[in-house]
Amino acid sequence: MTLESMGIVSGVIMMLSFPISFYAMYTKLEEAESYLRFSTFIVMFKHMFKAGLFEGRMKRLFAVALVILMPAAFQWRRLVLVEDVKAIPIRLKLWMVMPFLLTLFSITGMVLSWLLTT
Fold it and tell me: Which key words tag this protein in UniProt (predicted)?
């Protein structure tokens, strides 16, 4: 696969991740935040970005995804309880993490194809 086609595929993945992100933001985010209601990190994020674009839902979605992906790092800082993260159902964890990872991988692919193209 050439670098140009890698950039194009990454762009297509990014465009396809938008509907998934919006669905997760408006249907699954509140449910996931209810499992993490004792999390200092999530409560602070929800309060701080509530007045932003889309009520800060995209930032909150990515914050919940980070907590799900790295609960031990957040517990080490006393921002989250690992027991709360383990209580989240697997399907809900998937809906929280999937938009984050799709966006991350597509941005990485686009940046790498841009940097390595001469």
Answer: Membrane, Transmembrane, Transmembrane helix
